[in-house]
Amino acid sequence: MFKSAITFFSCIIFIACNNNPAADNHVAQVDTLHDTTSNQNDTDVTGNNTTAESDSLLLAGKSIGKVFIGMDASKLEKILGKPDMSDAAMGKAWTTWYSKNLDEHNNKNELNVYSAYADTDMQRHTVQEIRTTSSFFVTPDGIHVYSALPDIQKKYVVLKAAQYKSNDGRTIIIYDDKQQGIAFEIVSAANQNICIGIIIHEKGKDVNEIYLTLHPDMKRF
Question: Which residues constitute the domain of residue 153?
Fold first, then answer.
């Protein structure tokens, strides 16, 4: 039993390490979104109170910490600091921040934000999808990165949406709850299916409508 537990967590560490970019010498100035809070009574662009408690909250179809679907993308740098990576083209962008510290499984985490023009006027960029690999963020019902698929399925109606290969060649399957606006990246390790990433998107929309641009080799179901 003890040997199996060691094997399981070793697999998780190996998987997550190979699924995150090696950016040890170029990471964000903050570790998690809650580190960016300079005023406990501030409100975000949606009018929601941004207390310390809300900084770790992950809401399906709405937000991860202080980053909300539909918020003005120009606010991101003020909240998160300068990004570590940005892939922009044709008015669309994936922007990435890396953690400066390791998580409980000795992995660096990342936050990815997709933004694009809000409408055909092309005057304002808005956040349209958010992804995290950090277990710091938790849904109100207790789901987070490293949760097991059976626990996720008790809380969300998820269906297989797509799959892609990680940097180490492992298959990552994306399970999407389209109606609630939340998707989970799942990998098999030691005979268990574990979440290694959570994606927040607009309710009622397929996660693949945007996420495909982050993994062009992704296969849809």
Answer: 2-220
116 and 127 in contact (C-beta within 8 Å)?
no
* pLDDT tens, residue by residue, 16-46: 444 444 333 333 333 444 343 333 334 333 3
Report the number of distinct structural domains present in the chain.
1
pLDDT tens per residue across span 100-151: 888 888 788 999 999 998 877 777 899 999 999 999 999 999 999 999 999 9
Judge contact between 177 and 157, C-beta under 8 A.
yes
Give the residue among 48, 200, 45 at the shortest CA–CA distance from 138. Answer: 200
Closest alpha carbon to 19 in 99, 92, 109: 109
Half-sphere exposure (CA, 13 Å, Cβ side) for 35?
11
DSSP helix, strand, coil percent of the chain (3-state; round to 5): 20, 35, 45
| Dihedral in degrees, nearest 10, Cα atoms 41, 45, 47, 53 | -50
Return the higher-pLDDT residue of 134 and 5: 134
Q: How far apart are CA 136 and CA 125, in angstroms?
A: 27
Distance CA 26, CA 192 (A): 33
